[in-house]
Design goal:
This protein has 378 residues and is α+β, with helices and mostly antiparallel strands. Helices cover 22% and strands 21% of the residues. The two termini are 32 Å apart. About 6% of the residues have low confidence.
């Protein structure tokens, strides 16, 4: 991997990640941009104890532009975009309309490919590995910023999720605090550790799913994917490396090499959930070792499955409030889920979910896991 850092016309950082060591990235941003002005502010809710980012400048962000005006495609002739070069492998740049900025953290955009009409599932294993390397590098770099306490790499896919740019891309948030969801995990981790005399809760959860087998979706030498026992979403998969590590930096080379096979297979299965197909490599009995060959296009007449893919990493800040827990106790994992509950119908966060944070799931986790095994690549 070759990394080339440059600056856009308004001073924001842009980084090219190339598979070839001889790639040259010297294109200049020719747009007449004024320096970016943000109004990001972090406020703490005294009743709930969580944090809200107030970012009014985002009201003017780019919203569903036509494909020929996509700001994430490479620049071409007089059509200038966020990426000055005429091609790229993977690009990361500071968001022009960040939710978090300055003392309140940092937001970056990750463009997975220059192909506007592709999706992550369409990437080759080499391309997916390059994205993993970019996520890892950005995690390392952002962890050194004084305004960043936790790094969150994620992808929102689909208009139903709220995506306003169709180009295949994700984001990276550098939060100036430990996020509420991570704090809940750390508290549960601390409570379980004390109650059991030192057992790691993440290890216990993974071991239970492997022993049960009914919710295991995919199992390989270095990764395991399962639908959690108390899944919140209709189709939700948690992907763990078999060797517990606190963040992307901790993955060894074997896990990094195998990740593209496993993750691309999961994404391609997600695009087949609602297409009526079945009869893949596995039956309903459980995981088992398998490869990840095969295509990834959605079924006839079905739009691509909307999803959120979210990496959970240990915070880099102090964990003193979580007594007895250190960074190495946390387990890196990816949570992949869709808000589509059945063909043509979405799962809305209505009164119970939005008002009381109590999820009601219409699809039993065991049924979801069985379906995700049925649509394995043949």
């Amino acid at each position: 991997m070759k990394k080339t850092s440059t600056r856009l016309a308004d001073g924001r950082e842009l980084i090219y990640y190339d598979a070839r060591d001889d790639s040259v990235r010297d294109a200049v941003d020719r747009r007449p941009l004024e320096p970016t002005v943000t109004t990001s502010e972090v406020r703490r809710d005294p009743l709930l104890g969580d944090t809200v980012a107030i970012a009014s400048h985002r009201q003017g962000r780019t919203y569903h532009p036509p494909a020929n005006e996509c700001p994430l495609c490479p620049s071409s002739g007089d059509r200038l975009s966020e990426i000055p070069d005429s091609s790229y492998d993977v690009v990361v740049f500071e968001n022009r309309f960040p939710s978090l900025a300055g003392d309140s953290g940092r937001c970056e955009v990750v463009c997975f490919t220059s192909d506007h009409d592709a999706s992550f599932a369409d990437l080759t294993e080499e391309q997916a590995r390059l994205v993993l390397d970019a996520w890892t590098d950005r995690t390392a770099e952002l962890s050194h910023l004084p305004s960043v306490e936790q790094v969150f790499c994620f992808e929102n896919r689909g208009a139903e999720i709220g995506v306003t740019l169709g180009h295949p891309h994700g984001q990276i948030y550098g939060y100036p605090f430990t996020t509420p969801r991570t704090a809940l995990m750390l508290r549960s981790l601390a409570t379980h550790k004390e109650a059991t005399g030192g057992e790691n809760l993440f290890d216990a959860v993974v071991a239970r799913e492997l022993a049960d087998g009914s919710r295991v979706v995919l199992s390989s030498d270095h990764w395991v994917a399962f639908v959690p026992y108390a899944a919140h979403w209709p189709y939700e998969v948690h992907l763990y490396p078999r060797r517990r590590v606190p963040d992307l930096l901790g993955l060894d080379e074997d896990a990094r090499t195998e990740f593209p096979q496993v993750y691309l297979e999961l994404l391609r299965r997600f695009d087949r959930i609602f297409d009526g197909s079945g009869g893949g490599k596995e039956g309903a009995s459980g995981g088992g070792k398998e490869g990840a060959s095969g295509g990834g296009k959605e079924g006839a007449g079905e739009p691509p499955t909307p999803y959120i893919a979210a990496w959970h990493q240990a915070p880099f800040g102090s964990l003193e409030e979580f007594e007895g827990v250190n960074r190495d106790d946390f387990a890196l994992h990816l949570e992949l889920f869709t808000i589509r509950r059945t063909s043509g119908k979405l799962k809305f966060l209505a009164g119970s979910e939005s008002g009381m944070s109590v999820f009601i799931n219409d699809v039993p986790p065991e049924t979801a896991a069985q379906r995700l095994r049925e649509v394995a690549s043949s």
